[in-house]
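Narrative summary of target 7.
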Amino acid sequence: MSKKILITRIIPQIAHELLTQAGFEVNVWQGDGPMTQPELIERARQADALLSLGADRLNQNFFDQCGHLDVIAQFAVGYDNIDVAAATQAGIPVSNTPDVLSEATADIAFGLMIAVSRKMFYLHKTIEQGQWKKFEPLKNLGIELTGKTLGIFGMGRIGMVMAQRCQGAYKMKVIYHNRSRNEEAEKLYGARYVSFEELLKESDVLSVHSVLSAETRGIFNKASFSKMKKSSIFINTSRGGVHKEDDLIDALQTKAIWGAGLDVTNPEPMQPDNPLLSMPSVAVLPHIGSATEEARYGMARLAAQNIIEFYANGKMLTCVNPKVLSISKEK
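Modeled conformation, tokenized:
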């Protein structure tokens, strides 16, 4: 009997094709939006493996009822929606999709930085509202980026691409804070490792590329924003939970910082009356960091390949809890 794979949303067809060609029985949730957890549990009980998305709540309750699963492949780099400790306790390996979306997500961070520095989103709205009447020399002024200091919070794959973009285009100096030193970034881009406090104080643009964890949740708060330069720009393309949105709004309203560019919000989705959407030096996007044909195709392919590799060789290309793979488990 072939293994049954549940894909929890409609994703690029390549995942379905690869899994079907490998002999699996594939079921794709066709609903408009994510399943409720009870719906997900009910369907997962009938599957052997899960190809999940970030909106799926795979918590202790889920694993208590779906501990029979052989493997979970996440269609994303981040996996904060998954209780990895509970998955590990249940003996279920979990994978993600790094690398394939690094270029796309860095493009969004880079684009938001430029858009904020020149108030592009806000000024586009003024044209729609009929406010563009004449040339005014002292109005609508932005700030230039050349030679400024880029601070990276989380110098992983995406952070490194962002550093490359900013250094190449604007000759920006690069500093970073990470759980550990990134010698490759230091060698390639002259990046300088600094403490979190130094990152806040020295960055002209502070771009967040970290995972969401107990350590990073809410780390950009009122205290953090108060230590940043009044001329600084805050960029977040990682997870909305890394910043406290009320504190960010207050920092912008009181001019503690100059601007912000967000591809992720806290909470998501953002409400249309959120004050951030009407601020001149703010640009907000609806979590589209990986939204290119190339990136989403690559994510679907890698997620499928992780499942195929697991059943073929007991391994995964990008496992986030690899110690599980070395433990035999009767399902």
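The chain has a mean pLDDT of 96.
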